[in-house]
Design a protein that fits this description.
The chain is α/β, with parallel strands linked by helices and 337 residues long. The protein has two domains: 157 residues, 3-Layer(aba) Sandwich (Rossmann fold), CATH 3.40.50; 126 residues, Zinc Finger, Delta Prime, domain 3 (Up-down Bundle). It has a five-stranded parallel sheet. α6 links the parallel β3 and β4. α1 packs parallel to α2 and α9 packs across α10. The longest helix has 19 residues. The radius of gyration is 23 Å and the shape is elongated.
Length: 337
């Protein structure tokens, strides 16, 4: 089993690996940037490199530490997300206490012991202050990697003791090249992918790896049409069930509900632009004729309301509000506007 390489973050990884080779690593790293830029994957790859004791450029992929890191069984690599630590919406002092206590147990086998906290923005001020005490006088072998999509929620004192790496959205040309190199069969859809993904490589992966995405787009356009033109109210339950069926489960190892809502929002946004007389900046250009026709059945006010409701639903789901109730209430609000 090989260690997954986070495609699209080559420059950042080159800098991190060079630090290992030059022995200029530090005790704390802050990986900051929007969701979908493979911060967690980059953190895990870098952690594997820190623990590697093989020959050549780390991670070698073949030493015992690399093999264990690849299978998520390395006792010196502790990776925690919000859901691993607690059922709450934030990580408090009590939840992080076990992690802090473990720091003072020496590595099992490797020279380093690496802790990855994947949802850094969920740490309360109290939890961060507790973590700060470790960062001020860390054991020589300990390395912390804090991933966050909201760097402003990380205390300045934590930031000042960390090496900050900024994960930035890619340019349109970089996304086109990313698609060409990794998904050549999707190049014909490059215009849509560039417009829809907003420079986020994780979104590109979700689209290009999903064989049903053309069907998903059509379903979400049909949903937009029902919400704006009207129809049997029972159809709203069908739409809600369709979206809910794409949450993370045994049948769907990846949560696709966010992409479905993004797709729905992109149609509402395109319609609003067309209603305002704009013909540029349309994401779903291949749906232009259908969008133009649908525009005649709705108002600018309802479209603006639909955009607002959908964006609010995304925010609620980001803080783990119930998917089922959020989706259904959002659909009802738009339908009866």
């Amino acid at each position: 089993m090989s260690i997954p390489y986070p495609k699209g973050n080559h420059a950042l990884l080159r800098e991190l690996i060079a630090g290992i080779q030059n022995e200029t690593t530090v005790h704390a790293y802050l990986f900051a940037g929007p969701a979908g830029l493979l911060k967690r994957e980059t953190a895990r790859y870098f952690a594997a490199a820190l623990l590697c004791d093989g020959e050549g450029t780390p991670p070698c992929g073949s030493c015992d530490n690399c093999v264990q890191s690849a299978s998520s069984n390395n006792p010196d690599l502790i990776a925690k997300s919000l859901k691993d630590i607690t059922t709450k919406k934030s990580i408090g002092v009590d939840e992080i206490r076990d992690i802090i206590a473990d720091v003072y147990t020496r590595p099992f086998k490797a020279k380093k012991k690496v802790y990855i906290i994947e949802d850094g923005e969920a740490l309360t001020v109290g939890a961060q202050n507790a973590l700060l005490k470790v960062l001020e006088e860390p054991p020589e072998y300990a390395v912390f990697i804090l991933c966050t999509s909201e760097a402003e929620k990380i205390l300045p004192t934590i930031q000042s003791r960390s090496r900050i790496l900024r994960f930035l959205p890619k340019s349109d040309n970089e996304i086109r090249l990313y698609v060409k190199e990794n998904y050549p069969h999707m190049q014909k859809h490059s215009d849509f992918i560039v417009a829809f993904c907003g420079g986020i490589t994780g979104r590109v992966d979700l689209l290009c790896q999903n064989e049903d995405f053309a069907q998903i787009r059509q379903k979400m356009f049909n949903a937009a049409a029902i919400l704006l033109r009207g129809g049997k109210p029972t159809r709203l339950f069908e739409i809600a069930e369709y979206i809910e069926a794409h949450k993370k489960s045994k049948d769907h190892p990846t949560d696709e509900t966010g992409i479905l809502l993004d797709c729905l929002l992109s149609f509402f946004s395109d319609l609003l632009k067309l209603k305002a007389g704009a013909s540029v900046g349309i994401t779903n250009t291949d749906y232009f004729d259908k969008l133009t026709e649908l525009c005649t059945f709705t108002s600018k006010e309802k479209l603006a309301f639909a955009c607002e409701c959908t964006a609010l639903a995304q925010q609620k789901l980001a803080i783990h509000v119930s998917l089922k109730s959020t989706i259904l209430s959002t659909l009802l609000e738009i339908y009866y506007k």
